[in-house]
From TrEMBL:
Pfam families listed in its UniProt record: HTH_31 (PF13560), MLTR_LBD (PF17765)
Top-level division of the source organism's lineage: Bacteria
Coiled coil residues, start to end: none
UniProt-recorded name of the protein: Helix-turn-helix transcriptional regulator
InterPro entries registered for this protein in UniProt: Cro/C1-type_HTH, Lambda_DNA-bd_dom_sf, MLTR_LBD
Domain HTH cro/C1-type span(s) in chain numbering: 17-71
Alphabetized Gene3D superfamilies for the sequence: 3.30.450.180, lambda repressor-like DNA-binding domains
Organism annotation: Rugosimonospora acidiphila
PROSITE patterns xref list: HTH_CROC1
Length: 265
């Protein structure tokens, strides 16, 4: 058993709220207007002169778009029970969610699609994703598979990506913004790790025809140059932590040649 004296003390609730407000770059006045409370009251809460109710904490964290997992931590810091459950994806009550995800993934075939958790660990995928995993180092495919590690590691997809610098910059920027928005140390560590990967030698990609409206993924598969763009889908208005942290990444062909090749496979 870990001694309580060795555990890191939880910051006061007011300090946590102030940290989240500053992370969102809001002034006390701006947040107080959004939350429909007085600036004086908010100031008293942040400095510890006033103890917020659980309802006030929920209201402020909602306005600050604090992730559900961290909202529970703020409630605990205020002396209240967590308000948001965390249900395992394998639990019976998540059966409808699992079925919905499987329908979305299967319905996207023959194009690749996958589902990840908050740390970009692969939870499910359709048959089309084999296009990207084929030939990747076995250690990168050993569970839990991290999609960003698989995508940017020299032994993974990176050696097949012909616009690696562009795609790598897009993923690293996305990961950095996610880490900043959630204050998740695991994401910060992942960003540090994948940023250090050395780019492998790779063939030059085909020149783009016209301006791109999204960041493309140009992928060499055998003797073919395939082109994709991706979309991300999340569950709307989730009240469960697990559900709020799921994301489905779907890849679409960005040109007729890619679409024809995938349809014919």
């Amino acid at each position: 058993m870990i001694s309580t004296s060795l555990q890191s003390p939880r910051p006061p609730v007011g300090e946590l709220l102030r940290q989240w407000r500053e992370r969102r770059r809001l002034s006390q006045l701006e947040l107080s207007i959004q939350a429909d409370i007085s600036t004086r009251h908010l100031s008293f809460v942040e400095t510890g002169r006033s103890k917020p109710s659980s309802e006030m904490i929920v209201r402020l964290t909602e306005q600050l778009n604090v992730p559900l997992r961290e909202r529970n931590q703020v409630l605990l810091a205020g002396g209240y029970a967590p308000a948001y459950p965390e249900t395992a994806l394998s639990a019976p009550e998540m059966a409808a969610v699992r079925e919905a995800v499987r329908r979305v993934l299967a319905g996207h075939e023959p194009y690749p699609a996958l589902m990840v958790d908050r740390h970009w660990n692969l939870l499910d995928a359709n048959a089309g994703i084999a296009l990207f995993t084929e030939g990747c180092a076995p250690e990168l495919l050993a569970p839990p598979v991290n999609v960003l590690r698989l995508g940017l590691h020299p032994g993974g997809m990176a050696r097949h990506i012909t616009n690696l610098a562009e795609w790598r910059g897009h993923l690293l920027d996305r990961l950095q913004r996610q880490a900043a928005a959630t204050a998740d140390p695991v994401l910060s560590e992942l960003h540090e790790e994948v940023s250090a990967y050395q780019s492998p030698e790779h063939p030059a990609g085909s020149p783009a025809i016209g301006p791109s409206i999204v960041v493309p993924l140009h992928y060499r598969y055998g003797d073919r140059n395939l082109s994709f763009f991706s979309t991300t889908a999340v569950f709307g208005t989730p009240l469960d932590i697990t559900l709020s942290e799921l994301a489905i990444e779907s890849f679409f062909p960005a040109d007729p040649q890619t679409a024809a090749f995938l349809t014919a496979r």
